Amino acid sequence: MSDLPFTLDQLRILKAIAAEGSFKRAADSLYVSQPAVSLQVQNLERQLDVPLFDRGGRRAQLTEAGHLLLEYGDRILALCQETCRAIEDLQNLQGGTLIIGASQTTGTYLMPKLIGVFRHVYPEVAVQLHVHSTRRTCWSVVNGQVDLAIIGGEVPLELQSSLEIAPYAEDELALVLPIFHPLAQKDTVQREDLYRLGFITLDAQSTIRKVIDQILVRGNIDPRLLKVEMELNSIEAIKNAVQSGLGAAFISVSAIEKELKLGALKRVNIENVVIKRTLSLILNPNRYRSKASEIFIAKILPQLSTLTANIDFLSSLSEEGISDLTPAEVSPL
User: Fold this and answer.
1) pLDDT band at 93 (very low <50, low <70, confident <90, very high)
2) 173: phi > 0 → left, psi -120 to 50 → alpha, else beta; which?
3) What Å distances lie between residue 227 and 39, 86, 117, 232, CA to CA?
4) In contact, 162 and 282? CB cutoff 8 Å
């Protein structure tokens, strides 16, 4: 075959249709007309001599050939993006993009702080944060869709051999109560007290809920014996419910920093019990590692514990002039 039967634009269109579920929404997301999208798909099917969509239903469904082309197309587009980032590195971080992945709690409460520090030093580097489940985030790293990721759950077994996994930090799970709850007057409660409380939790099928239950078990707390009064679908909803006096909850310390400072929630320790989970840094060892990602790993990630002194840290970074570091001087974890 002398010429490729598809273009990168056609692969982008195919990916957009698969993601959006319709030609019209795909056209809107790509800022082109629907007839232009339809024409490109028709040309692509004619060049490949195979149908890519089953047009019998209301939603655009890929055929077997369409799924196959989408799978390879994702890899081709990811490699193109990787190539562009490698070329952008030649500009010594005067531009380019850093793509970071994170699981839900980590991405919502931790990563924005670290990204803010990085952007202060390298304002010309565009940063994207993709927040998804641990499983989906791991697949994004494997597929080259993100440069690095911080996750709180377990890496799927089938992906462990394809990833470089390093412990990053400890994330503590705190027992929080309404400030007017009787036990909120104490600094410490007994493990047995937990089984008399009413709890607000995430949905039992949610990944974060399962992770929290696993952490509780490691702390010798049986989550099956906890009295669940209400199940909600987000950490923010749980925090608001606890503030309103609807029950107690176990929440990551990183998610309640503001509420504790404002006195909106009361954190109570459990005697002889510290409940923690390990956050992990995951990388794809077979993918190009940009200078931006290397500096983020070596210079920004270690500063998690010093973010409360953010101004002093930013000043020290500027004085050190870390933008002058060469890739050889910045070693990943």
Assistant:
1) confident
2) beta
3) 58, 53, 41, 15
4) no
**End-to-end Cα, the chain, rounded Å:** 44
Which amino acid is residue 100, in one-letter code? I
38-67: pLDDT as tens digits = 999 999 999 999 999 987 767 888 999 999
Q: Note if the pTM is more than 0.90.
A: no
- CB-based contacts of 305: which residues, under 8 Å, 6+ apart? 169
Identify the band that residue 81 occupies on the pLDDT scale cut at 50, 70 and 90: confident
Q: How many CA atoms lie within 13 A of 192 on its CB side?
A: 0
